[in-house]
Please model this.
Amino acid sequence: MDQAANSAGTAEVTLRMENLTKDFRGFTAVRNLTLDVHRGKIHALIGPNGAGKTTVFNLATKFLPPTSGRIFFKGQDITKTDPADVARLGMVRSFQISAVFPQLTALENVRAALQRFRNDGFYFWRSAAALDELNDKARTLLADVGIEHLAKYKAAELPYGRRRALELATTLALDPELLLLDEPMSGLGQEDVGRISDLIRRVAASRTVLMVEHNLSVVADLSHRITVLARGEILADGSYADLVQNPAVIEAYLGSDHG
Model:
């Protein structure tokens, strides 16, 4: 095993992206990026619009293939693994836009996600009674995100912030080891920002989290480590206290109109 694979397989590193480059018809969105996400930490990825943050997410979760470079998850090379298999390994992502079934209740949404663990596959057409064995676990997950009292409401009827909490509950139903959150505070009011921040902190107590987030107060409050991207490359990496003193970061991001 080579030195890179050894590094990727250490107990401290859950996700390693090594020398990643992604080209789109001559435009380089990510250039020669190497990034380690350490087990049990909240790691934030920030930068101005167009810096390549979402592309990095799409590369990590295999929604996009890299032009070059390698990706390791828990020491396993997943560079050529498809997204569904990556999710089964324990890397699960959320999206900027809430991704729940609007006409299902909160309980039914979580129960649908929990069907992953059934040996007989997914059965959306089966009667509700046939899936009652999942109800207790689904209610526990709804309680974990603070919306158990909304179990019988359709997702479409929930306020936006509660739909985001429901999305997180369905993501947690997949029992991820690494949770990738793409702008979890997008579109939330201040009260919901505080609620979801507390929720992420609780979730991260037993998981690794990599998140893209524009709200710098949230980043400062939650993150153990922050990586700043600019034009598809890593500009700086470290704690929030270190980065706010970095002139290059201030010029490229913190002092720009993108904050």
